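Below is a typical protein record.
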Amino acid sequence: MPKHVRASALTALAVAALAAGSVLTAPAAGAAPKAAAPKFLSASQLPPHPTSAWTAGPVTEGFPEGLGFCVSTEGVPSYDYRHREFRTDLDTGAVQLTVVADTAALAKALAKHYDDLIRTCADRIEQNDPDVEAEGRDYGTLPVEEGARVRGLHTKTSWGATDISLLSVGRDGRTVTVVQWGQMGDFGDAPVAAFKKTTTTAVNKLY
C-alpha cells in the first residue's frame, strides 16, 4: 500500500485527538523531587515480528507524535515526557511513553485519563472524520505493579486503508507508561498475548 495513503489515514486520526475533553489538575508547586528516570523497553521485548527484527530508537525528551491520534497532552501540560520509538523494516511500529507525576494520586488520575482517551478514541475518530470507520476493543487488565490495561483500535478509511493498533496504560507508583504497537491490518493481525507480555515487561522494567 502506498505510504502516502497510510499517512493520510494517520493524519485523519490525529485530528481526533483535539476532541479529547478530559482535563487533569496540574501538579502543585513544591511537590516531591524527581525520582530516578524510568527505564524503557528494548527492541527484543516487543511482540516478535514474523519476518523483520525490531530496531529501537534513542530515549528522547518530549511527547511522541505517534500517540497523538488517541493520547495527547491536552489537559496535562505540566509534565515532562520521555519516549522511545521502535520500528521494523516493514510497516510495523511501536512507541513507549513515560511520565513521572509528582504524587501517586496524580499518577493514578493521569493513567485513568490516558485510558479514557484510548477507550473513547474510536468514537472521537468517527465523529471527526466521516471517511474513517473505527472500532475499539477492551482486552482487560494486567496484574502488574499498580495495574495496566490493554485495548485495541481498528480503523478503516473510505479509500481502503486499514490499520490495527494495540495500546496499553500501566502505572508503577508515581510513573505512568503508555505503549502502542501498530501496523496495517485488522483485529485478526493483532498479537494480543505477546503485547500483554510486552506491557507487563514495560511496567515491571520502569524501576
In short: Residues 1-23, 25-32 have pLDDT under 50 and may be disordered. The first strand starts at residue 55 and ends at 56. Residues 19 and 124 are 7 Å apart (CA to CA).
